[in-house]
């Protein structure tokens, strides 16, 4: 597998150097692996910190900026960051109003953010935590006890980020984040495996002519493998399991997310089928976001995430955001 | 090659249905294949129309909206749209101030936009045309006489779009577009071929362990094939040929563009090397854009585009834009 890299060992550091060079509005500590908005800490504002293994970009580093995260901690590819990164991030963004840790539900991330929370509180930073566990595909898997955290992370970071931007106290920012997670569900499919730089080839085998239904963002196994399906059939399957689990009774935000290597031409065709399938189930879509946002390196495939919203959450979604990966109104 | 599609024959129509469903701010004529901003024609504003073969998304349909294009005409995959689409688009966006056609330099596109210009003028629409031909890799190739049009198309559409948004007359909008093209140069590399839905497999053979230097956005041959190079070596090669040709004596806009399947983690690492290589050649980068903007379906690889700017062009770059594929300040 050919990659646009120097050597596997420096992939994360090289990307961080690139982020620093391209985005002067960020402070990137390449050695300690912390990405912080340059104007942090923002006076009077609750700080938002997230992080996780690299390989899912723009999540999380691409979501640092006004209206979203204050800092992100990237680990090695598909590997949790360490507590030291999170403690540094918390210290860098705390204005005295406290810090929310947004943690995807993977065993390593959960343990390390827990430890970091204790260490940061010892240093006088008030910490709240929210766990993202939106993936309805499986409970308990290779990396996780319980449901995995995937696409809903974007919704949690955006909506809690907007609440913090409005000057909400830590309690409200945490409650928005928790609510968004509870109101969100995801499901993903893989048409191909992804290749990590360290391995230099596919992380799992997916035979020609088959797809993986319910795949995780590290290529973890899903619900089942089937003979290749059409975009329409995949949309029906994914919408069915997500709607069945969420049972939304008000409009939803819809993320149609590319896993990395699926062309936008295909992704929009898939989005058409997802809209159709939702319409047939009388689910109203308030806003749609289409693109590569929560990726798995060069995996081909897609996921959908629904987040049921009320007027408050919809207003937070529409609020300005200015990050490398998501930007409007600013 | 597995694809997230229904059948190859409906790929473009399916994507247009998706664009319509996800972006209510656009009017998408799926049958006639014209994408128009919903509020067109905008009173007193020059209209901008572009188009080309599908498979390069978000170019061009993802760049329709305030501050950029008024309409786009998608052809079949890697196939020029037909004059009828362009004539419809021109009629839909002309407010009486005239329309600029932005045409990538491929034989089919040039012929069809020429014919459309005549037909539209017969219908009373004043038409100006600008040809984009920024790719320094080769002159004359599979699809083109002269240089190919690639990444600079984004700069032309953004900067001319901003000029039109300010209320500039057709003459000035055309002159901005022409100037941006003259001040822009691109160079791309492929690590893998792309697969078209019709063919169902790679459009050309690229042996394991080799890359194509100077590849076109349809996988056309470039300057040479070499044994796989590092990100640093590729950046040095690409920056050398682009800077040698452009010889910029003021700051530049830099686009580090993914061909489709290259992970953002790799793209930012490559961006770091491009910044380094430009710095060593004393080229100052005013703004950088990193992402999949002018793609070749699922090709792995990247291209760089430089556009030399003065204060006027930099202001136009920073002006608000609100499209599916590029958005800020609005």
UniProtKB/TrEMBL annotation, chains A, B:
Residues 7-328 form the DhaK domain. GO terms for molecular function: glycerone kinase activity; phosphoenolpyruvate-glycerone phosphotransferase activity. It is an enzyme of class 2 (transferase). Its EC number is 2.7.1.121. One of its GO terms (biological process) is glycerol catabolic process. Pfam families: Dak1 (PF02733). GO terms for cellular component: cytosol. PROSITE patterns: DHAK (PS51481). It catalyses: dihydroxyacetone + phosphoenolpyruvate = dihydroxyacetone phosphate + pyruvate. This is phosphoenolpyruvate--glycerone phosphotransferase. It comes from Streptomyces antioxidans.
